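User: Predict the complex.
Assistant: Input components as received:
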Amino acid sequence: MSNWILKVENLGKRYTIRSAKTERYTALRDVIARKARSFFNRTDAEKPPADSEHFWALEGVSFEVKRGEIMGVVGRNGAGKSTLLKLLSRITEPTRGRIHVRGKVASLLEVGTGFHPELTGRENIFLNGAILGMSRAEIRSKFDEIVQFAEVEQFVDTPVKRYSSGMYVRLAFAVAAHLEPDILIIDEVLAVGDAAFQRRCLGKIDAVSRSGRTVLFVSHQMASVQALCSSAILLSHGKLLKHGPTQSIIRDYLTLSNGKAAQSVEFRDRATDLSSTLLTSLSIEDADGKAEIFTSSRLKITIGYSGANRLSDYNLLIAIYDLGNAGIYAFRTSTSKSLPDNLPPSGTLVCITDRINITPGRCYINIALQKCGANLDHIPHAAEFDVEPDPEVDPGSIPSRDWVLVALNHSWSFEPAP
Amino acid sequence: MEELIIEPGRGERNYWRDLWRYRELFYILAWRDILIRYKQTVIGAAWALIRPMVTMLVFTFLRKVGHFSSHKVPETIFVFAAVLPWQFFSSALSDASNSLLTNSNLISKTYFPRLLIPASSVATSLVDFTICLGFLGILMATNGFMPGPQLLALPFLIILTFALSTGAGLWLAALNVEYRDFRYIVPFIVQFGLFVSPIAISSSDIPTSWRWLYNVNPMVGIIDGFRWSICAGIPPIAPSTFLTSVAISILLLVSGVAYFRKMERGFADVI
């Protein structure tokens, strides 16, 4: 037996789009009116709905999840993530394809689903547990643990309508997390709740997977996806674009969602403290004047700064990162011998690099200006740029960004055995 | 390890097994509804009694004024015996038909056999019914009225009412999701039903030539049955009336479950 716990084959879900004129739901009078019209006007009899009125929220999606794996599901809004989760948790039926599940699935689709505001915390634990498929005996045995995890001991007999939103979320998460399903589906819950609780949720999810259970995690917070998931799938317009290691999926997702890279930016509208010096602009271009940046390009990074006083004992830092947050290069002025010790109050610093050798894909830049080792200004993710594959090089010979960050020119030779 | 396959049309095969598996949810949903219904009210469960009591008092007054025959049964008992099943049927029907819409967040966010929602609404009405049954007992004791052996038929009649309410409730609940007009139709059915059921009057007051039409209302046989079972001494009901009720109840229940099952798959997409 192969060791998948969830297998999705060619899954598709089609929705019919109702035209804007009709209501979200059908009213009987509309149906009667339509039938009557078509009765009197036979030529205009109801046509079968054209294919354009259908919309595939999910199409041809296939993947497998292994036991104990935490898999991330990422994609922009409307990519089909929620539809996929609804199909997996059997809320709605697929139009096409098949899902194999080995074990019990529980989903935490939205916080507090099935909570009733008039009921107390205690009553809601039983209600919510039952909705998620737990028996009363199971809930009773886990009750104290749930209450403790949610930190609502004092309020367990208070109606949940008096709870703060944080308590609400904690309780909802606690119930689902103690359910012990074989597959736990989590959608965007961590968006609420304070940092400490978010950390504990992540810890709990991690513990859940270490005990051999599987987690499907949907989030727009790439940091959580990266921290938790070993692999991920990327959905776009209902199709599965990619299934692979989290790093590379996140990078593709960010490239997909950010559109064109911002290579030249100005930092205006920032609180101007005249006594300090701030960074004012940043641009990244090919040092030889080419329109695009290639793996073989040399970079020209131009940074403007402005302030009231002359700068001494300064240090300008530039760091280049991959979208998966892996650092590639860092440059700083403090090691440069060609700059004066002391700069005018405002001006521009230009940094020219050697060939960058970065593999094709998107990168981003952090910049910071320091004086005597303390930050005067710091702009994380100040700009982005795309590295294109060299046109004159065979694309197949350049390693992929999923694998390595840099590609170096190199040569091989053969030495015969002595 | 048990393997579950989800594919188009597959839901059918696991349905009844799932229904059994989720039976705890059925109790809890019913328990929730009962808890909520009386949670913020001053007199709590007494509300279950007030509506049928007021109906009974009004109808008793009308009967006194109109000099109807109640076959030597105390007037209040004679009327209450009919109000009892009617109240159960009407509240079960309105609650069940709205139940899917009031629980729409559950339907669009979680999976369980949807049949549990209207079924638990009917069960909730059964609790109110039990309270009223207790009141009937008190009424009989204070009037010194002894029931006869027909009382043994009462459990069967209650099951029949339950079946009819569930059947009609399932139809209306499913239709309500698809066509929101039914929100207005249900109160109308309930109001109209009060006039065409033998509650203030008894079936024997209806001219024989109209009896066949009157009997189309399945509540006629049930109400007459309740009255016959509770009020010792009144003439037994015509078997044809009663059998019509049984037949219509079974038909509604079977077709209601079938229709509900057919529509259920689309609830999450439509609601």
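The first strand of chain B starts at residue 3 and ends at 6.
Let me know if you want any component modeled separately.
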